[in-house]
């Protein structure tokens, strides 16, 4: 379980104050708020890339808190396709992620087939469209084979067919026991497969199930 305890986030202003949340294995959890409200900053804190002003984030298994090194091997976060090096290829990234993160190796070719990357997987990323780059990022999650996925606007740049493919991808990940925490827009179609949705409101994380989301519109 990924836990947040008494977390406070401050950038130029206070974004979150003394918030708590728990993200369980086998669940999908949405983060919803206007731009600038702290969604990306919170994901960075969960990934260990940014420090919070106060509070803590940690992984717990069998009532034991995991050490930092063990925790980082169980979490995968790739914020944006803008992070991709235009001189490398999707194949380079998939091989690297599978080697550095996966406890048990994933069939990279199978992932390439699923996301239909075959035609461009070994071309330099500078030749990719936004949709091609986004599918590369999503394929990286698959080959990471980690227990926890942190995803920032994961359907950005996907056409309708690939949005449908992504939703099935999320469902299958949940069935395997993956915990997914993602940021998204209001009324996103992903909320239909979410176990919980957290709205950032008045510097708090307001937790709701999908059948009560009308309360936060």
From TrEMBL:
InterPro entries assigned to the protein according to its UniProt record, in alphabetical order: AAA+_ATPase (IPR003593), ABC_transporter-like_ATP-bd (IPR003439), ABC_Transporter_VariousFunc (IPR051782), P-loop_NTPase (IPR027417)
Entry keywords, A to Z: ATP-binding, Nucleotide-binding, Transport
SUPFAM superfamilies per the UniProt record, alphabetical: P-loop containing nucleoside triphosphate hydrolases
ABC transporter domain residues: 2-217
Highest taxon of source: Bacteria
Keyword Zinc-finger tagged: no
Gene Ontology molecular functions: ATP binding; ATP hydrolysis activity
Stated name of the protein: ABC transporter ATP-binding protein
Upper lineage: Bacteria, Bacillati, Bacillota, Bacilli, Bacillales
